[in-house]
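WARN no homologs supplied; continuing
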Amino acid sequence: MSAFDDGSGPDFGATDPAFGPSDERPPPLTMEERAGVLDDLAELEVFRTLLEPSGIKGIAVDCPDCDEEHHVDWALMQANLRQLLEEGQTGRHEPPFEPDPDDYVSWDYASGYADGVAAAAEGDEPTGRHGAGRHARED
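OK structure emitted
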């Protein structure tokens, strides 16, 4: 159990009837997909450790279904990734009530911030090349 486990959040273990009976569940994640989700969980923990003390509440995600930006707090993002590992999909969850977009950052921003902190700690200058840092996503 990590320092970011939050028992006060919603019950993410319940089956959502909107997804149909259990025989309609997606196939299990491949080993490569599981490794990617585990990497995302590890990165999320780094991002939260670095950004939460400055008031950042979570990640802003562009939703392809509704073309809107969703604001997902740290605990919910962690729960979504864990649910993806366990069930192969994530359920729909209630967004925060009237979130302040300034309280959320994109995954790319968080990744770049983490790279900058790591470079500063090592005494190096960030390269400025998008996607070149240790925390950069390869999608």
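DSSP finds three helices and three strands in the chain.
OK
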